[in-house]
Amino acid sequence: PDEALWHTGWCIALRNSDETVGVLWFNGLPLDKTVKLNYLFNDTDDNGYIEEALKAITNWAFARENVYFIRTEIDDTQNNGDIFEKMKFYRIETETEGELYWELERPASAWLAVYMSIGLALGLTLGENFFGTQTLGMVVGMCTGLALGAAMDSQDRSARKRENEPKKLK
Fold first, then answer.
1. CB-based contacts of 114: which residues, under 8 Å, 6+ apart?
2. With 70 as the cut, is the pLDDT of residue 125 above it?
3. Which helix (H) or strand (E) holds 74?
4. What share of the chain is helix, strand, coil (3-state, %, to 5)?
5. Is the pLDDT score of 43 beyond 80?
């Protein structure tokens, strides 16, 4: 029951008319930091409904623990690749003839900038009281923020490494 949402179909319906324009669903729990996204879209989406739904479901998935990649596949006779390309999905190698695999990577963390900013603010605030000068406080705060932010970003980079890394296509 705790994992039911990884096996649930999400209907894409228009707010005003309840007309269905597609369905999205995941193919189970994440494996090797990757979750497979399946979909059925109506022929065209001139209004951006599918893109809006894809953004919502990918944001939801990336907010979950241990999900760093979302993969989908399309039959090369379908004309949905432009939607995935627009959303920053990239093509990856596949062994199946006639199938195109697309993948989206979770954005990297930016803790370095956050911790440097916090360190700078704390250094300026506390520098005069502890060091007698804001300059020294600012330097200590920024160095501390740099160290903490770099460690957090490094942890994020190592957490997204997969056992079976697919080859990106150009």
1. 149
2. yes
3. strand 69-75
4. 40, 25, 35
5. no
| Euclidean distance between CA atoms 61 and 163, whole angstroms | 20
22: left (phi over 0), alpha (psi -120 to 50) or beta: left
- Give ∠ CA 15-59-67 in degrees, rounded to 5: 140
d(CA 64, CA 162): 17
Amino acid at position 57, single letter? I
Give the dihedral of Cα atoms 51, 79, 82, 19; nearest 10 deg.
-10
pTM, two decimal places: 0.79
DSSP H or E run through 17: none
Residue among 47, 63, 38 at smallest CA distance from 13:
47
Q: Residue with structure tokens 């990336």? A: 62
d(CA 49, CA 72): 18
Give per-residue pLDDT as tens, 19-36.
888 899 999 999 999 999
Task: Give the amino acid at 135.
Answer: T
Cα-based angle 29, 107, 101 (whole degrees, multiple of 5): 55
The count of C-alpha atoms lying within 13 angstroms of the C-alpha of 13, restricted to the half-sphere facing its C-beta, is 8
Mean pLDDT of the chain: 86
